[in-house]
Amino acid sequence: MNPHNLSIEELKQTAAQVRRDIVRMVHAVNSGHPGGSLGCTDYFVSLYFRVMNYSTDFTMDGEGEDLFFLSNGHISPVWYSTLARAGFFEVKELATFRKLDSRLQGHPTTHEGLPGIRIASGSLGQGLSVAIGAAQAKKLNKDNNLVYVLMGDGELEEGQIWEAAMYAPHHKVDNIIATVDRNGQQIDGSTAEVAGLGDLRAKFEAFGWHVLEADGNNFELLLPALDDARAATGKGKPVIILMDTEMGFGVDYMMGSHKWHGVAPNDEQLEKALQQLAVEQASDY
C-alpha cells in the first residue's frame, strides 16, 4: 500500500511545495532543468503520495513493492524533491543539488547510494528497456507488483525506445505502466519542429500496447487515469499513458516554452516563482 495516501487537496499542497523546491534548487546552483520538472510534478506526487505501493526502507531489488524508473533523467529536481518529501532522505539534503560530492547529481546515479534511485539515467532512450527487464524479473520472482517508467516525448526520437516498444508486447510484459510526458517541447524547440512524432496512440497500439491518455496537470483527471492503467495490467498487454503536460507548469513565465528546458531563474525570477507557488505552510529547506 502507499505509505501516504493523501487527499487531492493534500496532493495539491504537496505539489506546490515540490515546485518550490525545484525552482530553489536550480536557482541555487544556476543550473538544472526546471521546465520538465515543473510539468511532471503532479505525476510524481500522484505516484509517491497516492498510487504506488512502496516502502521508504529502500532496497535495490525492490521485492514486494512497485518500482519507478526515470528515463529522462535531466528532470532529476522533481524526483529528488519528491523522494525527500516522501521520506527517502532528509529534505535538507536538497540544498546539495548539483554540488561537488553530493548524492544529488544533475542526472541520477547509483554509486552515491541515494535511496530511491536504482539506475543511472539521463542518457536518453534507455529507461523503457530497463523497466521492461525489471518487470520480467518480477514475473520470474512471482512478485505481483508493478513497474512504472517515465519518458519524455522528445526522447521518443531515440531508436532504443521503439526496440523496447516492440519487445514488451511480444513477451506479454503486462505488469508495466509506461508514461510519456507529452509536453511538445525539447531542448531545441517544439517536438513538431524538431522531429514530428505523429499519432503516438496509433503507433503504440500498432506495436501492441494498451494506450491511455491523461491530463498530467490536473489531479482530478490524472488519478483516474492512473487507476485505469493499473486496472489494465495483467491482461497480456503492456500499458502506456500519453500524458499531456505543460512545460514549466505553475510558473507563468516558464509555461509552454522550451527555453526553460535547462535554464535556472535569476534572483528576481525566483521570487516571482515562489509568490506563484504559495502553500498554506511552506517548509522550504
UniProtKB/TrEMBL annotation:
Coiled coil: none annotated. Keywords: Thiamine pyrophosphate. InterPro entries: THDP-binding (IPR029061), Transketolase_N (IPR005474). Its cofactor is thiamine diphosphate. The keyword rRNA-binding does not apply. Belongs to the transketolase family. This is Transketolase. It comes from Pontibacter flavimaris.
